[in-house]
Amino acid sequence: MKEGKSVKFNLQPQNGRISPFKISKLLDPEASWDKDELGDVLHWIRQGVALVCGLLWGAVPFIGAIWIILFLLLSSGIIYGYYSIILKVDEEDFGGHGALLQEGLFASITVFLLVWILVYSLAHF
Description:
Layout lengths: L19 H6 L9 H25 L5 H22 L9 H7 L2 H20 L1
């Protein structure tokens, strides 16, 4: 018999489901975050905001640069509120406000503009 056997727990998602531990961590201010995990979460939140805003801006026929600026303000405000109010992380541990607010910004602008233009063009022309 081998006495040095160790038991490993598999915390990976199974059957396409995310474990409740991961979801509860998203709203837990006491949870510990490393830079990559927090960056991934902020990136995907921003992508979701970009998708929703692009669909909304395209369905309601908004045109003009003011709506791009409004998207940037809304997206950055949601990200700032999430990491500073909900998670209460020390932003200096993750590179400061600039690094956290920039996480996923350019990809989200691309998603936002793509969805906005496609929905606007398909719905109103």
